[in-house]
Amino acid sequence: MDSALLSDEKQTHLAHVLVKALRNCGLGTLASDSTLVLKEIKRVIAEQLQEETTLDQYVRNRLRSYSRPIPEGSQEWDVLYQKTYAEELRKRNLG
Predict the structure, then answer these.
(1) Which parts of 2-74 fold into alpha helices (H)?
(2) Which domain holds residue 35?
(3) pLDDT the model gives residue 94
């Protein structure tokens, strides 16, 4: 997934929703200015989207490297993609 799929406006909206949820949950208070918190949330969103894009590309390249071609979109490809993706998440301590 590319961060371009989540426009700046959508990232900003999501950041505001998260700040509001944090304030409303009553588990604590934000120790920093809202602007700094919003910027940090947007940075983390962009970082996560980039990580997902990188991982997706790695998995696709790995599936393409198989000696027998597996048609993308086939049931076999979907199963192998999900299995390989989950395996890479574990290896990278992301899932």
Answers:
(1) 8-25, 34-64
(2) 3-91
(3) 80
